Fold Probable GTP-binding protein EngB.
Amino acid sequence: MIVKSAEFICSNTQVSKLPAPVMPEYAFIGRSNVGKSSLINMLVSKKGLAKTSQTPGKTQLINHFLINENWYLVDLPGYGYARISKSKKEDWDKFIRAYLDKRESLQCVMVLVDSRLEPQKIDLQFCNWLGEKGLSFVIIFTKADKQSAIKTDQNVAKFKKGLLATFEEMPPYFITSAENQTGRDEVLGFIDEINKGFEIPEYKQF
Ligand SMILES: Nc1nc2c(ncn2[C@@H]2O[C@H](COP(=O)(O)OP(=O)(O)O)[C@@H](O)[C@H]2O)c(=O)[nH]1
Ligand SMILES: [Mg+2]
């Protein structure tokens, strides 16, 4: 896929105010600081599209970006930020889970996992929840440039093992680096394939 255009459409705090679900949509999510903003900017080759920052836990909005005028890239707030209050965490949970569970046009959840780390409980738990809800997801391992390919492969294998404790098979996964564009063609190619089969779902108009 060649990305010709990428534009910010809207930020939402309410599921009822999302754009009409008439285009295929892909939600990017992961722990704070996993490299989500960097990955999104790398995918669409636009540096400032999703804000990168050193301050985790800032974005608490559902951000819609329209790519090539035919699909939505959705930037979701990061999970697992230790320094937010319990009630805020619960709000996050409700809001994001409602979105993921109810969004008719959502094609796939792109779960970002830091390739430098051993499997994190919170990532596995989130994948399990997606599985329980019957939502399609893939794993995007980030920051692969930060260590050797061997180390990355070892962490991928461990994550796989963690998932296979509950799943019958490993979902598709991608090894990426925002730094040197690793995995860009693969992720965009995956999205392109799904877009080809997209049909506008039935939905309620408000
Ligand atoms: N070396 C390297 N650093 C990265 C990569 N992706 C993100 N980072 C760095 O990791 C930090 C967090 O990235 P950011 O995209 O803001 O993470 P977010 O909180 O998940 O949106 C920043 O300092 C980025 O520069 C990558 O692929 N390679
Ligand atoms: Mg970010």
Observations:
- Residues 86-102 form the longest helix (17 residues).
- The chain has one domain: 6-10+24-196.
- The helical segments are 36-44, 86-102, 121-132, 149-164, 184-196.
- The mean pLDDT is 91.
